[in-house]
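Sequence only, no structure available. Ideas?
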Amino acid sequence: MYTPSDFRRGLRIIVDDQPYYVVEYQHFKMGRGKANIRTKLKHIKTGAVVEKVFSSNDSFKPPDMEEKKMQYLYENGGEMSFMDSQTFEQIEIAIENLGDAKWYLLENEEYKVLFLDGEAISVDLPASVVLKVVETEPSARGDTVSNVTKPAKLQTGLTVKVPPFVKDGDKVKVDTRSGAYLERAN
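Reply:
I predicted one. Tokens follow.
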């Protein structure tokens, strides 16, 4: 059982017999009353976003979800194909269901695929991934001012802001939660 004090981004909970995950949450207290938690929740299956306010003493059950390690194979006509490495069973997940996770999937890599009621619904990503820069503009000489960035297109099609010293062919570490450049990787 979870309470609102356990809330964090991405936490999966059951609210009104429906599975949601927490997108945003904010703790607030009005006057002498008890504390409340204002949240934005996203429905796991439909993607609908709702705003709810919970009391600090509410409790929630986690949804009955299953995780399987699966290998990402390829994208085909708006669907991403995954294969179970043990049984070689293949499944497809619609790109709309993956959201921003599609920008961080590398072919032939293993990821945790989340299942709800036997249906694959999303992919659980690591905190960061290493991706190759395929296109970026060269840095101008004398660009030594701090916090100067330039756009770089990565191998998955994602565009991130990188420091001027990053060039084509470099590998960079990207945060999968915010989509921000973290560091250059070896």
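The two ends are 42 Å apart (CA to CA).
Hope that gets you unstuck.
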